[in-house]
Specification:
Chain lengths: 117, 109
């Protein structure tokens, strides 16, 4: 099976612009989560989508948004970019929605490295 | 939310067994403990998961004491390629996944 793919792999934007990142999950996986990773804050949860619905959301401003399509592919959008948005954005897929009693393994993509100038 | 505490960094030598301990004093009854490994410029990779006692797979072992307030990831006979960041995660009731800062493991020749 092909792994999680993310496009583009690298991106350079300037402050005030917006950006859209794409994630294709492993075939058959219905849950897609997004994370932001920076040297200072580590790996932070952005949001999770399952069956085209946002199921969980981290503590990020409304400039960060996402969506999931019927084929489980997902996009995340960041509007009005700030310098602090420079980070590695990781997408992870899993077969089903996580439940409290057990934690389904997540499969991560290689990430999109976003640089905001 | 069950918070986890891990050492920030560790050094070891090739061929040694490495044990990384994670504290999770507020772990809930239904929470599982999961470890991930991350190499530079790559996404994290699942290593092992457990609920209690001991779990072993081809990569590592996970030891969980009876009170489940901590867990230890054991990597047998490490090599240079095991240099990575290791994250301990505890299943959270609201399903948000908290990775924390992880432990930066550096294997020396």
């Amino acid at each position: 099976k092909a792994g999680v793919t993310q496009t583009p792999r690298y991106l350079i934007k300037t402050r005030g612009q917006q950006v859209t990142l794409s994630c294709s999950p492993i075939s058959g996986h219905r849950s897609v989560s997004w994370y932001q990773q920076t040297p200072g804050q580590g790996l932070q949860f952005l949001f999770e989508y399952f069956s085209e619905t946002q199921r969980n959301k981290g503590n990020f401003p409304g400039r960060f948004s996402g969506r999931q399509f019927s084929n489980s592919r997902s996009e995340m959008n960041v509007s009005t970019l700030e310098l602090g948005d420079s980070a590695l954005y990781l997408c992870a897929s899993s077969p089903q929605l996580k439940r409290g009693a057990s934690y389904n393994e997540q499969f991560f993509g290689p990430g999109t490295r976003l640089t905001v100038l | 939310l069950a918070k986890t505490t891990q050492p920030i960094s560790m050094d070891s030598y090739e061929g040694q067994e490495v044990n990384i301990t994670c504290s999770h004093n507020n772990i809930a009854t239904n929470d599982y403990i999961t470890w991930y490994q991350q190499f530079p410029s790559q996404g994290p990779r699942f290593i092992i998961q457990g609920y209690k006692t001991k779990v072993t797979n081809e990569v590592a072992s996970l030891f969980i004491p009876a009170d489940r307030k901590s867990s230890t990831l054991s990597l047998p006979r490490v090599s240079l390629s095991d240099t990575a960041v290791y994250y301990c995660l505890v299943g959270v009731p609201d399903d948000k996944i908290i990775f924390g800062k992880g432990t930066r493991l550096h294997i020396l020749p």
